[in-house]
Amino acid sequence: MLALVFALSSGIIGGLLVAALPAARTRLRNMVVLFFTGSGMICSWLVARQVWAGERLRFAGQLGGLTFCLDPDPLGIVFGLIAATLWFFTVVYSLGYMAGKAHQRTYYAFLLVAFSATLGVAFSGNLVALYLFYELLTLTTYPLVIQERSPEAMQAGTKYLLYNLAGAAVLLLAIVLTAAWGGRLDFVGGPILAAGLKTGLNWLLFLFTVGFGVKAALLPLHRWLPAAMVAPTPVSALLHAVAVVYAGVYGLLRVVYSVFGTTLLGELGFAALIPWVAAGTVLVGIIVATQQDILKRRLAYQTISHLSYILLGAFTLHPWGLAGAVLQMIGYAVLKTAFFFCAGIIAEQTGVTRVSQMGGVGRSLPKTMVAFAVVTLGMIGMLPLGTFWGKFYLMKGSVAGGKWPLALVLIGSGIINAVCFIPVVVRAFRDENKRLSITERGVRVTLMLVPTMLLVVVGLGMGLFPGMVWPAVQAVVDWFF
Amino acid sequence: MTTLIRANLPVLVVIAPLFVAFILPPLARRIRLVEALALLGAVLGLGGAGYLASIVLTQQENPFIYQLGGWPAPWGIELVAGSLGVFFLLVVGVSVPVLLFAQGNLAAEVGGAERVTRFYVLYLLLVGAMAGMAVTNDMFNVYVLVEVATLSCCGLVSARRYPRAAEAAFTYLILATLGSALVLGGIGLIYLITGHLNMGFAAQELSRVWLARPHVVLMAVSLIVVGFGVKAALFPLHVWLPDAHSTAPSPASAILSGLAVKGYLICLVKFLYGVFGPTLLQEFAVHRILTLLGGVGIITGSILALTQEELKRRLAYSTVAQVGYLILGFGLLNVTGLAGALFYLASHAVIKATLFLAAGAMLAATGKRNVRDLAGVGRKMPITMAAFTIGSLGLIGLPLFSGFIGKWYLLLGSWEAGLILPAVAILAGSVLCAAYLLPVIRAAYFAPAPEEDWPDPGRPQKLALLLLAAAVVILGVRPGPFLELAQKAAAELLAFY
Question: Where in chain B are the domains?
Answer without folding.
Answer: 347-497
